[in-house]
Structure formats: structure tokens, C-alpha cells
Request: fold
Amino acid sequence: MSENGKNKREWVKTAAIIFLSVMLVLTFFANSIMNYSLPEVATSYVQSGSITAKIRGTGTVESGDPYEVKVTESRKVSSVAVSVGQTVQKGDVLFYLEDAESEELKAAKSALEEAQKKYELAVLTAEISSSNIFSANENVSSEVYRQQITNAQAAVQRAEKAYNAAIDAVTAAEAAVVPYQQQVDQLTQKISDYRAQVSYESSQDVAARDDARIKAAEDKLNAVVSGGDAATVENARKELADAQNAKAARQTTIVNLNAAAADMELQKYSLEKDLAAAQAVVAEKKAAVETAKAEWDEKEADLNKLVGNIANVISLEQMLDTITEAQKLVDELSAKSYDATITADISGTVTQINVTAGNTTSASSPVAVLQPEGAGYTLSFSVTNEQAKRLSVGDRADLVNAWRYDDVEVTLASIKPDKNDPSQRKQLTFNVTGNVTAGQTFNISVGQKSANYDLTVPNSAIREDSNGKFILIVESKSSPLGDRYVATRVDVEVLASDDTQSAISGGLNGYEYVITTSNKPVEAGDLVRMPD
Amino acid sequence: MRKLVLKISGVVSFLFFLILLFVANNLGRMQDSQTMAERWSEKKDVAQISCFFSVNAGITEDRIIEFEHSIDSALTDASVVQESENPGARLWADAYSADGRIMLSSDRSYLEADAIGIGGDFFLFHPLKLLSGSYFSGNDLMQDYCIIDQDAAWQLFGSSNVAGMTVSIGGIPHMVIGVVERPEGRLEKAAGLDGTLVYVSYQTLKELGSCNGINHYEIVMPDPVTSFAENFIREKLGTSEKETEVLENTSRYSFLSRLKLIPAFGTRSMNGRAIIYPYWENIARGYEDILAVVTLFELLFLLYAIVLALVFFGIWWKHKGWTLKDVWLYLKDKAERLGEKLRAKRLEKKRNPDGSTGEIKRTPKKKERTKKKERAQKREEKDL
Reply:
């Protein structure tokens, strides 16, 4: 039991000694151990300084007012007479072309042939007269044709008017015939009535009736005379006398009627003569109408014929013109086909040559670009709207690696929306003067003048969280074991930044140490270690 | 003796569980790319959401700008307003990036390297360790910056202190604004950090390098209700399930998320989408795998400790030597005594208004209880 107790005591002693020595060691090295565990920070002074926000860009120098040399046909180039950068005078040969029928010449020739065939075919057609062909060749002006058509149209109108007048005359003549006819008809009726009366009065029946009346009266008288009184005889005698008078009166009437009829016959004859005369007039007028109608038709036919002829002539003229033009083109191209060259239209410097010997020119793209004498150079590139806001036209740009170039000046000439992205970007165009040539690439920087601020820190010092931007400054606190450094948060507002520095405003005096980087994450309130 | 060993093993197992829990929680948080929400706001009311797009998703800068414009109105609808007094404070920040290759040349040499074309506040989300210089942002005035790692700096300039130097990309001069340290490690190498990596603006990569299109977008934004932010992004930016993957970084390593990883064992590695994961997502997925295993062990240790605890509890319960009724009676007795005491106090006060109190005798209960305990212990030892 006592052995056991002794052992136990030994053990406790050992433990206590070890514990105490460890504590001692830890106390001695506490500072170093703690320092080692703290994040080491790099710091910088908050100080006053200037911020210069520059916009940088790269662009290629281009001719400011380029002159493009173009050819209208595709031809093979046999040799190039100039090189880029060479100065040429107006009329100097730029390219020699190989002798060859160009595609354009072949096309022109076939167009000419086609036009000729078309003309021949048209001439052979029946509707076209030789006078047409003659007129077409004479190249009569359209004014003449218009005059001819106007005349023909006037003639047609005149004929139509005459026809209408003749029709009116016929109507009038026919109206004149009507009263004569009526009178003749009336007379004829009357005559026929009289004649009927006469034939009735002079008929056997009427004579027999009269004779029978007389006979009856005579018989009555005879009967009365022999045996009757005087009054009756008188009556009988009167009756006989009346009957005899009636017969006699009928004879007179017949004579009178015949006389009247004869008179009317005379009258009718005279009237019939007048009627015939009037009818003759009508017939005459009708004949005149026929003539007028024929005249009108003829004029219209003339007009139609004229129009047809003119159309023929014009189409022929067109064909002839086509032929002439095609011929002209063929002649022109043929002339160019042999010993042809491309010459400079202006004096200047060759800035670009787009074809080489052996290649074929194309009508659409320029074969060479000339920089006219005296015209400037430009350089352009695209920037964001935000960048463009900081620039204004007239700003001078600096060349990066300026020592490479002497007396080159670059000035901002225009700020326009970028065609590729008009809403987001702007195209900056600079004027370049001095010893430059087109095609050179320049890196330039342009921007506002630098502004001075009281508080600036390196960009790496700016931190951010949901409470906004802040910096961590190092505050020192004295402790028995030496100075302790604490990272303290200061909320700031960033006023301006450039590539390396930011200007800030916040509760700072202007001589604090600000943490830029550290080897471990640092939070506000953490103890930190400064580099030895 | 065996019982003691078992008890110790149970306690050790529970300790292991606690250690693993601690390790798992910290392992996830070690990755800066996954903890933007913590950095962005001290309050736990923001979420970091990442989207990964396939090559064919057709996500353009315009599409992202359009989306950015819709965020503020959505936040206003959810009655989230800016409370900070700092005039420059933002409610949300976002970043996007594209994957590609680029050729850099300096006066002395040239280098072709993998490149990440960045837009937005990329380096806010991915605070790489700067060796010199500073970060840049897609919102900066100029976009002709690049950040290179120390390898690239060495190859191009023969030094790592090269911030401010100029390199030429596609004939256009770019400013080296910072030099970063490339993370090294088994996972990092496998995730795509096995070679030089250069960070340039998305514009530079698109125009002067070979670019596979925007393959990643991420945002940190207020999350007033759980999954509000994630659902909002899924709805507004997700093109189709096949082309997009949306995930919430903030809760991806939570215990619950880790538990969900265990049943996905085996199927997790399958992928039917043409998505190129950026290196940080590859690393994060690697950690997910590791954490799934850790979580599994966590569970096993916890299970062992719990089972043992239950068994011992059962045994102890069986031999406890008292019943619930005893406890009830004891408590009742205590309550009555307390009542009596209070009454006596009040009475005393009435009698002696000057304040002097009468003494009340206490029964010597304590001794009894110790005796009882001793007895129960003896019984237990006998049983075992």
C-alpha cells in the first residue's frame, strides 16, 4: 500500500514538473508563437496623390481620304509597276495588263450580235415597209411624229363633223317633203269623193228613178186631167214640174261636180310637181351623207396606219441604237484589250495594292488605294460608352512607346456610335500627323488631366462587402509583451480610380497604414503582424 | 474492467465524432471560393449562388446584363432594402467567367496558357493570394488588365514582382495588374491548376483568345427566405436543366447537405451535361466527396457512442434501486418543506417587523442519501 502511494506521489511530481516547464517555455515564446500564428500583412500609407484615368487603345493608321483605283473589267495583271509607299504622279502606270479578250469584251460582242439579229428579223417582218426602214435610218424626231398624228386626228374630226352636218341636212329636207305630201293626199281624197258623187248622180238607177217619178207624175196628171178637180190637177201638175226640175237640177250638179274635180286635178298636178322637187332634194342630201361617211372612214384608216407606222419606226430606231451602243462598247473594249495599263488618276502615295501579277482584277474591288497628296491620316478604335464619356474631341493622345516615333501627333477628332454595337460602344477617330504611313499600328492612351486628391490608396487596399467599400487600417496598441497591431475597418467612398491608385473619402487623417495584402484572410478586429 | 473499457471507448468514440464534426465544418469553410456569403455580410441573411453553363447554353454578356437589371426589382418585391449608410454599398455583387486559352508575349518570351476571362467582381468571390499588385474587376473603366500566376511571371519576365509591366495579347498591350500564387495540392492539381493560369477580362478572352463561352456565373445576394435566392436564379437564368446547373454555395457543406451526399454515393460521379467546371468548383466537389466519407465516419462514431450510452442507461435503469414514485414523493416532500419555510418566514416578519429572523432547523437528510448511494454501488458491482 505504501509502495503504491509512493509511486503515485512520484507520478504527480513528474507531471507537475513537466507542466510547469511547458508553461515556462510557452511564456518565453508566447510572443513569437502568437506572432507566427497571426496573418502577416503588407501595408502602405494613405497619402495625397493624383489620379489619372487613361483610356488605352490600339488602332491602325489609315489614309484619311483614300482614293480607290478601280477597273471596270476583269483582266489578268501581267506586272505591278509600283509598290506600297511609292509616290506616283497623275498618269503614271500602276499596272500592266495582259493582252486578252476580257470577259466584258466577249459579253459585249455577243450582245452586239444579238442586237443585229433582232434588227434583221424585224426588218423581214411583213408589217414593216421600206419607208419605215428609211424613216428609221433617217432618225426622225418624235416631234414630227406627234405633228403627223395631230394632223391626222384633226382630219378625222373634220370628216366626222361634215358627216354629222350632212345627216342634219337630210333630216331638214325630209321635213320639207312632209306638207306637200299631206296636201297631195288631201286633194286626191277630195277628187275621189267628187268623182264618186258624179258617178252616183249620173248612174242609171238615179236616172230611172227620176224618169219613174216623172212618169208617175205624168200618169197621175193624165188620170186627174180626165176626171178630177182643178186643185188636184194643179197638184199633179206641180208634182210633175217638181220631178222634171229635180232631173234638170241633177244634171246641173253633175256638171258642177265635174268642173270642181277638174279644177282640183289641176291643183294636185301642180302640188305633185312641188313634191317631186322636194323629194329630189332629199335624195341629193342622202347621197351627200354617203360621201361624208366614206370620207370619215378613210381618214380614220389613215390615222391608224400612221400610228402603226410610227410604232414600227420607233422600234426599229431602238434596235439600231442598241446596235450602235453595243458596237461602241465592243470598239472601246477592243481598243483596251491590247497593250493596256492602269494609270494613276491622281498624284499621291500608294497605300495599298490589292492584286499581284498573274491575278485577275475584279470590277467591284479596288486594285490599289492612293493617299492623295496633302490629305491626313486617321486612326480609330472602339471603346465602351463609359470610356467615351471621359473623353472629348480635341484631346491629345500619347503614344505608348513614344520614343519609337518622332514628331507624331495624335488628336481625338470624333466620337461616334460604333456601327457594330451602336448602343453599347463608341468609335473614336483620331487625326494622326507627322512621320507616319498607312498600315502602322499605334498603341495610344488618351484621357483627362490628372486630378489631385487628399487621400489615395493602392487599388488592392479597397475591399467591399454588403456595407459598401472599406479599407483596413493598422492600429497599434501597446501591451506588456510589446506592440499589438489590430486591423480596423474604415468605411470609404471611392471617388476615382486609375490603374493602380484609388482616391477615397472617409474618416481618415491621411497618415494611416492601410493593409494591401496579407498571407491569410484578415477581418476587422483581427490582430495582425507587420513584416519584420 | 471490461465495462470500464467499453465506457472509455464510448467516450472516445463521441470525442471522435466531435472532432470529425469540427474538422468537417472547417474543411468546407477553408475554401475562399465557397464562403463569399460570410465575407459579404456578417449577418446570415445572404446566400452565394453559382450557376454553371454548358457550352451550348448560349449565355452572353447581354443576357447577364438583362438578368442583373431584374435583380433589384425582385429584391424590392421581397421588401429587401439597402440599410447601409455608406453611399456606395451594394445589396448584391456578381461575377462570371469563361474558360479558354490565350497567348501572352513579353519583350523576352512568350507563353500560351489556360485563361479565365472574367466579368463582374470575380476576385471578390475568388480572393486569390496576391504576391504583388492588385485585383481588377469587370466593372473597371479599362479592361486591358491581366493577372498572372508566379509561374507565368517567371516565364515572361523572370521575376514575380511584375505588377505594372506590359504583356502583349493578340498584339494589344495589356497591363499585368497583379501576380497571384497558384494554389498547390493534390486536389488543386487535379482540378485544373496543373499548369499556368492567366486571368484576363472576358472581353479580352473573347476577342483575342480562344474562348469556350461563359461557363460560370455567381452572385451573392440577400436571401430573406431560405432558397429565395437559389430559386430566383434558377428561374431567371437557368436555361434548361440539361444546360445549366445551379447550386447554393453557402449551405453546400452544412451537416444536412453532407448527409444528403451519402445516399448519392456512386451516382454522384455521373454527368450527362456538357459543362466544363472551373477549377474551384472541381475542388469544391472533391471536398464534397471527402466530406461525405468524413460524415459517414462521424455518423458511425456517433452511432457507436449512442448505442453504448443507451445500453448503459438500460443497465443503470434496471439497477437504479429507486423508482419514479420515490422521486415524485421526494420532490413533493421538498416542495412542502419549501412552502412551510416560506410561511414561517412570513409569520416571523409579521412578528418582528425590525427584520431579525428566527432560525429554522433543517433535517439531516444528506447523510441518508450518501448511504443510499453506497448501497446501490455495491449492488452494481455484485451484478457485474
